[in-house]
Write a structure and sequence with these properties.
Length: about 675
């Protein structure tokens, strides 16, 4: 029980002050005039002023409240290293038991998990959340059990009590870490990009090791081993072997006595892109759609185009030599013999044999296809003639044979059944509502896939693979009608763009492909195929665990499924004859960037509250009470600040000057002063 005198004035304090000045002035005047009752008059004034100030005596019945001590257990990934979980649990249990045995103490035990999206250990965030749920005036101490590798130490947080850090781990711990710097997300195919690697030892590392082995594997292939000097930056030039996703894995084998190998591997995923696409366009006799391909290719800033156009047929009998039919001597030998392999795509647009390109040149084009090149033939009436490209050395790689018929009638191009599943033609905008074409060359397919059909379901667009290369045959020269908006037009640019990119082997347009896209620890696996069904996909984890998943068709020719990877690392996917690799998790997980237990990061935060940093290896520290502002840690002990918090159970107030007493005292003093002055 406690008592306090309170004042609740009946008039505002300024008025009360004015009245006090008047009383003082009256008493002073009486004293100057020599009145013998000035003291009694002053006493009467004081009684009235005291009554107006409303004095009261307040009594409180208080119930003491316990002090709160917050124990934060770090259960992040780095705290799961050998020995640390046991240290953490043992220390937390011992502290809780000690606090429960103390009078007036209450324990709040919280855990600090891994931060979302590789955010690391968010210890200060967890303490902030815990303090938000507790009265700050009751918090006597905060004890964090952690390895000290905290990633939000700079979080602005006003701690109401001493913060102590109990360090897990051991003095003899050491670890080896692989660091990969400046790894770009994209790189140009065929051009070297330089990565900077570094192998670092931390903690009580052996001093007799100068070199460490480094294994490098691309897309899950057999790794190559190199010896790298420890503690020095190593510049490594890397050339991506193909377009699309390239997964490069760097691994340092685990050394004897090393704390963990979780930071000995780095996964780098880079997309291979082409710098410039080199295209050779060979146009034959001029026609209404002669600029269709040129406009398409010139609209793409990443395309280097060489356009070879025959504007004048050599059969004209005007006496002009064939070699002088152009303003400049066109380098046919250089293009078709010496530098043909420099091109990614060759397009023949209504071209027919006229003696400009000898059979030797066309035979070299056929060789170019078999070695991995790409040729597109946009056929016109010339393809059905005796001078057709089919009747040249290129005929051996053509997917269809012309029947010598040219069909001059209106028809609407349609996507074939297999074209519904082919990435070149699947999902074309406004499919089935396109404008008509007016000419088609009748051909008989010999190989490849017919993805579009024309008159009476005759082949219109045929795609074929020849050894390492690709060939496409468009059996019409009227694609330009769509560009002109004839009868509403059609997706000419989109179709031709996809066709050109498929021929240049862009990964997103492969008709048989197994891919995966990672989001955190989840991967979306996609299988594109021309078949109507696919077998289950098998996923092999970093530890060799094999998981089999059924795939669901989400679009024509596209089957997908989701997989949640249980750990960070390289995963191998297999579905039929298709294989792929993908890495889950960051290149270097933040939790394992630094694994040696240290109090350096939290040293300033602990010092501000006058707390301490103690190793659990030396034993769980004793608990002491210390006054606020005093050092709260010493050898073998840590301090708590008793808060003395209480809860008010009951409050009682009683007036010190009841009205009758005020009236009696004031009247008595005034009467006594009058009588004394009158007697004088």
């Amino acid at each position: 029980m406690t008592g306090t005198v309170l004042f609740d004035p009946l008039v505002p304090w300024p008025v009360l002050i004015v009245l006090a000045v008047l009383v003082l002035g009256g008493v002073g005047l009486a004293l100057i005039r020599g009145l013998s009752g000035w003291a009694l008059r002053g006493l009467a004034g004081l009684v009235v002023l005291a009554a107006l100030s409303g004095p009261a005596f307040q009594q409180e019945d208080r119930a003491p409240l316990t002090d709160i001590v917050i124990i934060a257990e770090d259960q992040s990934a780095s705290q799961q290293l050998p020995g640390r979980p046991g240290q953490t649990a043992t220390a937390a249990d011992a502290l809780e038991a000690t606090l429960n045995a103390r009078d007036g103490a209450e324990v709040r035990r919280i855990t600090v998990p891994d931060g979302e999206e590789d955010a690391g250990t968010r210890l200060m965030t967890a303490l902030s959340d815990a303090l938000a749920e507790e009265p700050r005036a009751r918090v006597a101490g905060l004890i964090a059990i952690s390895d000290g590798q905290v990633h939000d130490a700079d979080l602005p947080l006003d701690l109401p009590a001493p913060l102590h850090l109990l360090l897990t781990g051991r003095e003899t711990d050491w670890d080896r870490r692989l660091i990969v710097k400046n790894a770009p997300a994209f790189a140009i195919i065929g051009e070297a990009v330089t990565l900077t690697l570094r192998i670092e030892d931390s903690g009580a590392a052996p001093t007799d090791t100068g070199l460490a082995p480094l294994d490098i594997s691309v897309d899950g292939s057999e790794p190559q081993r190199f010896n790298v000097r420890i503690g020095e930056d190593v510049e490594l030039p890397v050339t991506l072997p193909h377009g699309g996703l390239n997964v490069i894995q760097f691994t340092v084998p685990e050394a004897d006595g090393e704390l963990t190998d979780r930071n000995n591997t780095a996964l780098i995923q880079m997309n291979g892109i082409r710098d410039r696409l080199r295209v050779l366009l060979v146009s034959g006799e001029p026609h209404a759609g002669g600029r269709t391909w040129r406009n398409l290719l010139k609209s793409d800033s990443s395309v280097d185009l060489v356009h070879f156009t025959i504007l004048r047929p050599p059969e004209k009998q005007d006496g002009v030599p064939v070699g002088e039919l152009s303003l400049i001597a066109f380098p046919t030998r250089e293009l078709f013999l010496e530098k043909i392999d420099d091109f990614d795509l060759i397009i023949f647009d209504r071209y027919k044999r006229r003696g400009i390109l000898p059979a030797l040149y066309l035979e070299n084009v056929a060789r170019y296809i078999r070695d991995g090149g790409a040729v597109l033939v946009a056929a016109g009436p010339d393809f059905a003639s005796a001078d057709s490209l089919y009747r040249s050395p290129l005929g051996e790689v053509m997917p269809a044979q012309p029947s010598a018929r040219v069909l001059e009638e209106a028809y609407r191009p349609e996507v074939s059944e297999i074209g519904q599943r082919h990435p070149v033609t699947t999902g074309l905008p406004s499919a089935g509502d396109w404008g008509r074409w007016l000419r088609q060359i009748d051909v008989e397919p010999r190989s490849g896939k017919t993805v579009m059909e024309g008159i009476d379901e005759r082949p219109l667009l045929i795609l074929d693979r020849v050894d390492e290369g690709r060939v496409a045959l468009l059996a019409s020269d009227h694609a330009w009608l769509w560009n002109r908006g004839y009868e509403g037009g059609g997706p000419q640019l989109e179709l031709l763009r996809r066709l050109a990119h498929w021929m240049m082997k862009e990964p997103e347009l492969e008709e048989e492909a197994l891919t995966a896209v990672a989001t955190g620890q989840n991967m979306r696996i996609a299988r594109r195929t021309l078949e109507e069904s696919v077998p289950p996909v098998t996923v092999t984890g970093p530890d060799g665990t094999i998981t089999t998943l059924d795939m669901v068709q989400t679009a024509p020719g596209l089957f997908e499924t989701d997989f949640e990877g249980p750990e960070i690392g390289l995963y191998r996917l297999a579905n039929g004859d298709q294989e792929a690799v993908i890495g889950l998790g960051p290149a270097a997980p933040k939790e394992f960037e630094q694994t040696i237990a240290s109090g350096d990061i939290l040293e300033n935060r602990v010092a501000v509250t006058r707390g301490g940093i103690v190793r659990i290896e030396d034993g769980v520290p004793r608990l002491r009470n210390v006054r606020e502002g005093r050092p709260a840690a010493g050898r073998g002990w840590i301090g708590l600040t008793p808060r003395g918090a209480y809860e008010t159970v009951d409050v009682r107030q009683s007036a010190l000057l009841p009205p009758w007493l005020v009236l009696l005292l004031a009247a008595g003093c005034i009467t006594a002063a009058w009588l004394r002055e009158g007697r004088r």
